[in-house]
């Protein structure tokens, strides 16, 4: 009956015995520790993709880890969605009513969740004010997955007093560091190699998925898988592909989806449709097996973002041994080393040149793809996130109140302004 | 900031000081008790409507009550939906694969939920096998909200070993009692008088909602609010209304919705549409404020079910002081005392006669409506459910292993076959 649970030992085949043993060793000091992760949904989105395997793996190394989800009303999620966008630089009209809804719903959830754990990790802004309603038994950590390069200043000022009640904040990239009175730690996101999106598919499974969507496979595939959002520059991808097509014979597939609450996404999608042709396939669909099949089969995967949080689709494609051309922005730069395990580009022209180069040179794309897979094996699997959390928890165990000197080792970096 | 949380004291205005004090007294022995409720969703359905206020109210009387939700994959919910239908008598092809999905997903949730509470209440079949994965610290209770009059025997035999690991089972009606080796307790569902569906609306709010849906109000309203499902007999309602219309001048409103996964519901809905006319309004919509407005404004509310679990829409309408004509089946018979606070009917003819009688006799429907509201005040508010849980918990506190003699008081009834 337990067959479907991934255990730490299952990672040996990917990262080797040594890494698994090292991670287990780090967990030894934390046996029986009670940890709670709290976020706002069980379904959809990158946070769920990380928490789902991470929580099971933490239990697998002996940490009693729970995953709690808060309940929200439609107006609560209306407010937090606006907050999410504003944290990424969007506008928000932050009136008294919005704050009231936000704080009231979180308070109700605080009543329903008795968090008396040794460590509590609160994810993203939705449950942030939970901390106001507990007497802490151990450190509380705010883990924010949002791109914080340019947060809306009014919103940030409102959230800051909540954040500063925490014992530390965890962000995905050093670039998101903020002037805060608490230590800041940086843990990059990672992928689950055992889930449907990332597990090894057979040739037959790949073929079945591509045929299901009538995707032609007699020419090399050039693929971008990304939300239909102007920051992902799907129009730029089409332009680059059209230029490249003068020199190579390939098929472009754009796979994406439109967030239900994103009217702009619909416009972007519509603007692409006239480009549809025999060689340009545009699909709006949620199908993780199709994502896997496309990333596995593609000659080249693009993630030509103009602006990007982390861009975990890059690691996903790299994991399949595929050569990736990524925009030279945000977290993509932490995944791709230009010319080594992929290419970084800053313009349509550069993208088109790299497409031509990779489609023409099978040997190059295979060697880059192999190095890409090695990069993910070393840095971007869930076990690596786990290890960073363990280092972080161990730092707390030896020193409940973190200070600026605690976390300076190779796994954790931090900034601190107090 | 705490303004939106309902406290036990807020019930004084409905049930009086004495009842509130009695309930608080019963909670005194349970101060600090740690209780967890576990179900499968935060959104939609009767169980959520009960748990949402009940959990807050339990905390309000000093019981540390948590609400946990399990996470399920689409195939898991596919299986449990079939189980739900089969528990109500439907068919199920219960193969090895379905059992595996069911038990694997529950096991994953067991890992993510560290249930070490004094009392654990597991709701409905979805999280039922959780009990296999814990060393119990106190009693575990299975609280089943499903109509169990005729469960599919194959499914029942599969679930029974899980059920019998519990210390007690709670069903909504005595009629659902089963030959089980554990004690069975009966707690009827109840309504939340503070939620949007049941709180007092102003005349203006009622008018606004009805106008929004262009519901004519110049004639008396005859209303049925119920899923479009043949057991709710919407066609019978239309026939009864047409017969009644020969003697009275009224408008019929059928408000319902179709469960997304219910192809039969769509057929039922379509079969009604040809009856639409100037005097017959049929709306498929989820809008709790509209439910409230219709129940508040109606001259008569029908719940002409041919088969019914509990039929909480009856209590909802009675709470608004409206006269209700209910089918003489299931839990409706516990809510309506025929001829006193409403009418029970067993045929289209009877229903049409009662419609005519009530629409013609304003005084009768007002006096019945008043008695209806009194009934709900006495028996079907969340505080009454709370009181029954408290009696139940107190019985455990004095006697962890319940036996057949423990629960025989006026609030709890039980059967036992061991």
Explain this structure.
The structure is a homodimer of 418-residue chains. Chain A is of the alpha/beta class. Chain A has two domains: 8-190 and 382-413, 3-Layer(aba) Sandwich (Rossmann fold), CATH 3.40.50; 203-379, 3-Layer(aba) Sandwich (Rossmann fold), CATH 3.40.50.2000. Chain A has helices spanning 12-28, 46-60, 74-87, 96-112, 153-163, 203-212, 234-244, 263-273, 288-297, 312-319, 332-335, 348-360, 362-379, 382-398; strands spanning 34-39, 64-69, 119-123, 140-143, 168-171, 184-186, 221-225, 251-256, 280-284, 300-303, 323-327, 343-345, 414-415. Chain A has a seven-stranded mixed beta sheet, with helices on one face. A six-stranded parallel beta sheet of chain A has the order 9-8-7-10-11-12, sandwiched between helices. The longest helix of chain A is centred in the last third of the chain and has 18 residues, at 362-379.
